[in-house]
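Lecture notes, unit on protein representations.

Consider one protein chain, 156 amino acids long.
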Amino acid sequence: MAGAVEAKLAELGLTLPDVVPPLASYQPAVQSGVYVYTSGQLPMVDGKLAVTGKVGAEVTPDEAKELAKTCALNALAAVKSIAGDLDRIARVVKVVGFVASASDFTGQPAVINGASELLGAVLGDKGVHARSAVGVAVLPLDAPVEVEVQVELVRA
């Protein structure tokens, strides 16, 4: 039975995806104490990137913002794989977003808003977080965006 967070996802027309398998030697998420840290999540859908390239060149900022949303959904799936239930999230503590950027692109914060806005829509006040949005030259598989999330779980 889905909890309140997954019900909210459904209300928004979203489905929690399967956890994206690691591309190298790491885990999608790990827990330390009451915190769950996700690895960087790419905008993978059904095992592949729908879009590749640099934001501000081959990828528009609006496309990239949607891709950041997909990254956040993948991060929630990784959190659920550790927590067992997304309703255990006490709050999102930190989001770090990486944007593969054309040399003159400076809109990284607006792109990562896709992830931040999704977390806020799904988790309400628990989704409000600290954040960094960083422009980089290239990301794995030529992904335009990568997002990692740290959450605090409700103490058992």
